[in-house]
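Lab manual, section 2.4: Encoding a predicted structure.

Procedure: take the sequence of the chain (163 residues), apply the prediction step described in section 2.3, and record the output as structure tokens. A sample record is shown.
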Amino acid sequence: MVGGAQAGALSCRNPVAPPRGVALLAAAEVSMNERSVGVCLYGAKVPGLEVADDAAWLDAFGVVPQTEEVSGDEYVRELRIPTGEAEELHMTWDVTDDSVRVRHRRAGSVIVDLYREQAILLRVERNGTITAVVMEYGTSDAVGRVRIQVTPEVVIEDKYLRT
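Recorded output:
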């Protein structure tokens, strides 16, 4: 049994209601129950990493993701977003491993280094003059959401709840 329903009987079009704590996060934020066909946070299906397309990154930040320089692996992408004169947000993600890493650097020093496995979503969010990157991740017993506001200034929020 998964969340009161038989395993395998669940589809993303008919997801199991999230546990109480998750419902609060999902209601206040973006629905974490349904992504795309074949990707479902709750139930028998295994989530996969859904990433915004290159046009969304270009439109929001003026830069396009590239193959990661260090590994040269075509499935590992990286994006460097300038956030000030001596500041940048450096993101890398691996769609085969469902992992995302975000580093905020200032004057050559790493200020914040976030790494998440079992990521299910990486997208751009815009609201007026505010532009942000949203990453969601989760397992059968926990869900999380990182929101990194890039403009007008860098602000990082990280929420993690047990289910």
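Check your result against the sample. The chain is about 10% helix and 45% strand.
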